[in-house]
Amino acid sequence: MTAQQAAELLETLAERIGECAAVVRLDGPPHIARLAHDLWEQASSIAAEAVLYVLAPERMTGAPFEHAVFYDKAVTTFAEEASAYLNTGRLPRWRLRTRLARRGRPIRLSDGRTAPGE
Question: Given the DSSP bridges, would you call strands 107-108 and 114-115 parallel, antiparallel or unpaired?
Fold first, then answer.
């Protein structure tokens, strides 16, 4: 694989991580969304450094290794936190509302009022 191909592959990877992070930002809890954003930032930094290497290898300063370490840490932290969150057994609010509605229980709204179950 040439440096150009590797840079293109890293750019594609960063784009896909960004797409996944966008979904997490929309649907995930705030602390997991922040970790997903951090993961995307680190992947983007690695991709940018790879492109810089292809365009001007003489300007490289050793930053890719540092970015790779930060990326690895971001992946590990995100995976651990997301796993811990997903394995708590707690339901997201929208799923809890749906479950309560199916049982015919009143649903408490954020302003304190209750809506009848569907």
Answer: antiparallel
- Contact between residue 97 and residue 115 where contact means Cβ atoms under 8 Å apart: no
Residues in the chain: 118
Q: Does the pLDDT value for residue 109 go beyond 60?
A: no
The percentage of the chain sitting over the pLDDT mark of 90, rounded to a whole number, equals 21
By the 10 Å C-beta count (0-12 exposed, 13-18 middle, 19+ buried), 98 is classed as middle
Q: Which two tokens stand for residue 34?
A: 């922040």
| Three-state secondary structure call for residue 117 | coil
Number of H helices, E strands in the chain: 4, 2
Nearest-angstrom CA–CA distance, 91 and 86: 9
Rounded alpha-carbon distances, angstroms, from residue 28 to 19, 32, 83: 14, 6, 12
Q: What is the pTM (predicted TM-score) of this model?
A: 0.64
Interval 74-98: pLDDT, tens: 998 888 888 888 877 655 555 555 5
